[in-house]
Write a structure and sequence with these properties.
- The protein has a single domain, classed as Vaccinia Virus protein VP39 (Rossmann fold, 3-Layer(aba) Sandwich), CATH 3.40.50.
- The protein has ten helices and 13 strands.
- It has helices at 26-32, 35-41, 50-64, 85-90, 104-112, 145-155, 172-177, 195-204, 221-230, 236-242; strands at residues 2-3, 9-11, 18-20, 75-79, 96-101, 117-119, 132-136, 161-167, 191-192, 207-214, 217-220, 251-254, 259-266.
- The strands form three sheets. A seven-stranded mixed β-sheet has the order 6-5-4-7-8-13-10, with helices on both faces. A four-stranded antiparallel β-sheet has the order 1-2-3-9, with no helix packed on it. It has a two-stranded antiparallel sheet with strand order 11-12.
- A hairpin with a 5-residue loop joins β1 and β2.
- α9 (221-230) runs antiparallel to α10.
C-alpha cells in the first residue's frame, strides 16, 4: 500500500484499491452504529427520511428485477438492512425477504414491523442460503468486505445475484473534489471502490458483473443540509440554526455520476 493523494487514504500499488488509513476493531465498529448514527450522526433522522429512501429502493428493485427470473419464487437477503425500508418495498415481489444489521436499534425497528431482520455480524451469523443478496451503500462500511463477498459466494444459490451500491472513487466527481468528496468520511466509510476494483473483487469469488451504472438518489433538503454542514462536525451550529426553516418534505433527486449500482451473477 502507498499513500493516496487524498490525505487519510491509502492505495494498493498493484490493483489500485483505496482504503482508509485507520485501525478499528469490531467493538469500535459496533459503537459507531448505535442510535446516534441514524439520528444526528451520519443521518439527521433516518426514519423521518423514509419516503425518500423508499423511492430510491423502488428504483433499485426495478433494476434488480431485470436480472432475476421468477422473483416470486426467490429468496432475497439484505446485508445492512437498517430499518428495513428496502425489505418492505421488496416483500411483495419476492417469495421471502430477510436481512441483518449490526445496528441493534435499527434491527429492532424493522422487527417491530414484522420483518425478519437479525441484529448481528453477517460473518458470524447463520443466515441461510438465498438467491439474491443486496448491499445498498453498505460495502464501504464493512471491516472485511472481501470476507463478506466470500461468504456470500459460498452460500448463494446457483446462478444467484448480488446487487451493490457504493461510491466510485475514480469517478470524475470524486477526482475533481479530491479530499472534499462527500463520501470520504472514515471511520464509517472504510473502503473506496472503483468500478474496476469492485468488479475484480467479485470476479475473485466467482461473480460476473452483468450491469454497472451510475444512479441518482432522492434525498430530503434537510438530509442534504445535514450532510454538507453537520456531518463530521463541519458546521453543526449552522445546520441546527437553519434546520427548522427547511420544509421536511422538500426533496431533490440528483445524479452526480459517482455512485455505482453493480449487479453480478454467480457463475
Amino acid at each position: 500500500m502507498q499513500p493516496d493523494r487524498r490525505p487519510g487514504l491509502i492505495r494498493c500499488r498493484e490493483c489500485g484499491f483505496v482504503t482508509a488509513d485507520v485501525a478499528i476493531d469490531e467493538a469500535g465498529l459496533r459503537a459507531l452504529y448505535g442510535r446516534h448514527y441514524f439520528n444526528g450522526g451520519e443521518y439527521a433522522d433516518y426514519a423521518a427520511d423514509q419516503d425518500a429512501l423508499r423511492r430510491n429502493f423502488s428504483r433499485r428493485i426495478a433494476t434488480l428485477l431485470r436480472h432475476v427470473s421468477n422473483p416470486g419464487a426467490r429468496s432475497l437477503f439484505e446485508i445492512g438492512s437498517a430499518y428495513g425500508f428496502f425489505l418492505d418495498e421488496a416483500k411483495p415481489r419476492f417469495a421471502t425477504v430477510s436481512g441483518i444489521d449490526v445496528a441493534e436499534d435499527a434491527a429492532r425497528a424493522a422487527q417491530a414491523r414484522g420483518l425478519s431482520v437479525q441484529a448481528g455480524d453477517f460473518l458470524t451469523t447463520d443466515t441461510g442460503r438465498h438467491d439474491v443478496y443486496c448491499l445498498w451503500d453498505t460495502i464501504e462500511h464493512l471491516q472485511h468486505p472481501d470476507r463478506v463477498i466470500a461468504k456470500i459466494a459460498r452460500e448463494i444459490r446457483a446462478g444467484g445475484i448480488i446487487a451493490i451500491t457504493t461510491g466510485d472513487i475514480d469517478s470524475l466527481n470524486a477526482r475533481l473534489r479530491g479530499r472534499r468528496w462527500r463520501l470520504i468520511h472514515p471511520p464509517t466509510h472504510l473502503h473506496y471502490f472503483s468500478g474496476e476494483t469492485l468488479a475484480a473483487l467479485l470476479a475473485r469469488h466467482g461473480f460476473r458483473t452483468v450491469e454497472r451504472e451510475y444512479v441518482g438518489s432522492t434525498r430530503s433538503l434537510r438530509a442534504i443540509a445535514h450532510g454538507l454542514l453537520a456531518l463530521g462536525g463541519r458546521s453543526d451550529a449552522v445546520y441546527r440554526s437553519i434546520e427548522p426553516l427547511i420544509p421536511p418534505r422538500w426533496e431533490v433527486t440528483l445524479n452526480l455520476f459517482d455512485i455505482m449500482h453493480v449487479i453480478a451473477r454467480k457463475m
